[in-house]
Q: What sequence folds into this?
């Protein structure tokens, strides 16, 4: 443990009725590290994110943040965000009828928001803060998607699927978090768009931000993360470098499949 | 042509002409109310239906409307000016001024309900209860000798407080449960007013509520200036206009600030808002309380302008009517909500010549409008990606 632990999750458990979505999962992450999380559909990856970010209450387990005493799992989502965790969603969650910049500005909410009485009584101050928040949001947008930053007043509902994902990424980046949680950032993207997002994420990681990324595309994860954790039926079945994980018999059986097993097509698709 | 209007910034002259048209529209509408007989009313109604039904006209009208709303501050100023001119064309006839005053009272309420229904998407079926609390508080305090402005402040604060309590009751539940909580609240308030006879005089109501006065000039006195004389109802009209303008100002200020953006976010996706640092339950609570406070001034005006209130004025039907104003006018759009409130309150009065068929035609009008404009007469531009 040479590096400082940013996030230390232990014995995390969550059940929905009889389904063990997460079963005693341990994970830890150093600041500035990128950790990939893979696993078949329904293996608990998104639940893991929802529990960490406070959207879903964990049944048991603890999550220590940055050496602080507070347990992340006991905090509501808005307080988790205040600690410096920002996320994107697998099923994109944006306000479609609002502009790109309005959506990205949500990431600067804590800096922009003023008390309600001030909205009424001090519109100038409220407006100035809003203005500053927008400039910072625009910066984040330029970083992630320069072509969107050229027309920040477009409505999100008019954008392509890939661009909407970029807006989500920019929104999370605008918050300048210490840990970025990306839930399938390339879902529904073609190979070229996938590569572009990969470049963006590497650029972000190079800036020193810690990243947790859920992905299905193995090669893609391998190109981002030095370490990969594999979930299956809510349990962590393997963890380590791409090569270690790829060779793990349990991972092959549950996720990757063997050449010649089933149809070759299946394994090819997942290898992509 | 239609797209040119909406996309190119119009020149100074055409902007001035458009603003002048907005200003002029109000006195013209006043003249219509005052003088239009059966034939003109029917013809105007048919013309409006045609405008809504024929696609070419519809797009052109809505493009012009969008262009006007794009410079919204000057648009609202033009509306205020135009509305202030209405009493000048009414002569000595106070009837329509009074109808319009009460319509504006309902418009203030509709702005409040719109913040709940249009902005964060919760249905309030008990807004008439808040309206009643404001009206009775103000009436009773003025009978006890308080000045009206002090009673109005107390009533507004009480509405804000009760709204916060309502929000608190439903903080752990989602949108639909708020409808049930408020339904119960509305019914309880009505029953309390009927049964607490010692305080509210029960179903007989409170009579002889004092008119609003300023430096000895009350809302019962005609306005007599050297160059201008107006009927007594003009006082109430200007007062309501002032309060309505204030309500629009407050609502717009919140809507155009971070609060308004957050309203849109919370309505569509409260999880997303929570993940970016918003305490969603607290935000909902504050929003519901703010929206409830709009019942305050409207209840006060209602009590003191009419001079008589009884439990019949505050039934659930009243709540639903204000909801209808918001939905018909255009949820989430302040201009739309105002249009909806004025039309829904004034139209039944203008349709009196139909006798018993009045309400039938009124209902038919609602259906036709919602068939052609499912998102309201002036829809909220932020909702173009919503399913109708």
A:
């Amino acid at each position: 443990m040479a590096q400082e632990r940013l996030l230390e999750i232990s014995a995390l458990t969550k059940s929905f009725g009889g389904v063990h979505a997460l079963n005693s999962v341990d994970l830890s992450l150093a600041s500035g590290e990128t950790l990939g999380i893979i696993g078949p559909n329904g293996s608990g990856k998104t639940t893991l994110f929802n529990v960490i970010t406070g959207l879903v209450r964990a049944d048991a387990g603890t999550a220590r943040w940055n050496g602080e005493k507070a347990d992340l799992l006991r905090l509501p989502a808005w307080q988790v965000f205040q600690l410096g965790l920002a996320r994107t969603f697998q099923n994109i969650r944006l306000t479609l009828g609002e502009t790109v910049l309005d959506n990205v500005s949500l990431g600067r909410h804590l800096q922009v928001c003023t008390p309600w009485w001030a909205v009424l009584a001090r519109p100038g101050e409220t407006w100035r803060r809003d203005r500053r928040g927008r400039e910072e949001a625009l910066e984040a947008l330029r970083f992630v998607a320069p072509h969107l930053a050229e027309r920040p007043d477009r409505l999100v509902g008019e954008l392509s699927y890939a661009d909407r994902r970029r807006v989500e990424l920019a929104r999370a980046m605008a918050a300048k978090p210490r840990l970025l949680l990306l839930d399938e950032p390339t879902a529904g993207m073609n190979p070229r768009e996938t590569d572009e997002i990969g470049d963006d994420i590497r650029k972000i990681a190079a800036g020193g931000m810690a990243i947790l990324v859920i992905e299905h595309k193995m090669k893609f994860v391998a190109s981002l993360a030095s370490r990969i954790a594999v979930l299956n039926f809510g349990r962590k079945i393997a963890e380590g470098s791409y090569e270690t994980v790829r060779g793990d018999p349990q991972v092959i059986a549950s996720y990757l499949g063997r050449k010649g097993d089933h149809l070759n097509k299946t394994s090819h698709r997942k290898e992509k | 042509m239609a797209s040119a209007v909406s996309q190119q910034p119009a020149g100074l002259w055409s902007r001035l002409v458009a603003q002048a048209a907005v200003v002029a529209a109000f006195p013209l509408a006043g003249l219509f109310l005052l003088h239009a007989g059966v034939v003109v009313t029917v013809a105007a109604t048919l013309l409006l239906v045609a405008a809504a039904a024929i696609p070419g006209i519809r797009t052109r009208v809505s493009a012009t409307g969008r262009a006007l709303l794009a410079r919204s501050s000057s648009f609202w100023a033009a509306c205020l000016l135009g509305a202030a001119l209405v009493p000048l064309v009414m002569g000595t006839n106070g009837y329509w001024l009074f109808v319009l005053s009460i319509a504006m009272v309902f418009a203030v309420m509709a702005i409040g309900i719109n913040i709940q229904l249009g902005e964060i998407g919760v249905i309030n079926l008990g807004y008439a209860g808040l309206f009643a609390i404001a009206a009775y508080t103000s009436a009773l305090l003025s009978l006890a000798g308080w000045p009206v402005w002090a009673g109005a402040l107390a009533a507004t604060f009480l509405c804000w407080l009760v709204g916060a309590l309502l929000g608190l009751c439903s903080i752990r539940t989602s949108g639909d449960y708020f409808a049930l909580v408020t339904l119960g609240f509305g019914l309880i308030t009505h029953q309390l007013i009927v049964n607490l006879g010692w305080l509210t005089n029960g179903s007989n109501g409170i009579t002889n509520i004092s008119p609003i006065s300023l430096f000895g000039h009350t809302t019962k006195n005609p306005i007599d200036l050297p160059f201008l004389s107006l009927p007594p109802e003009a006082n109430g009209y200007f007062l309501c206009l002032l309060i309505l303008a204030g309500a629009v100002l407050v609502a717009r200020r919140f809507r155009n600030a971070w609060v308004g953006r957050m309203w849109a976010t919370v309505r569509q996706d409260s999880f997303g808002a929570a993940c970016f640092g918003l305490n969603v339950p607290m935000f909902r609570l504050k929003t519901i309380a703010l929206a409830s406070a709009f019942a305050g001034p409207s209840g006060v005006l209602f009590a003191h302008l009419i001079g008589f209130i009884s439990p019949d004025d505050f039934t659930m039907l009243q709540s639903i009517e204000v909801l209808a104003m918001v939905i018909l006018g255009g949820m989430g759009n302040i201009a739309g909500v105002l249009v909806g409130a004025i039309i829904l309150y004034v139209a039944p009065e203008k349709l009196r010549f139909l006798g018993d068929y009045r309400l039938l035609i009124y209902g038919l009008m609602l259906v036709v409008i919602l068939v052609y404009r499912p998102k309201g007469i002036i829809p909220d531009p932020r909702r173009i990606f919503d399913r109708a």
The longest strand of chain B covers residues 223-225. Chain B touches chain A at residues 250, 253-254, 257-259, 261-262, 264-265, 268-269, 271-280, 286, 290, 380-386 (CB under 8 Å). The longest helix of chain B spans residues 95-119. The CA atoms of residues 11 and 17 of chain B lie 10 Å apart.
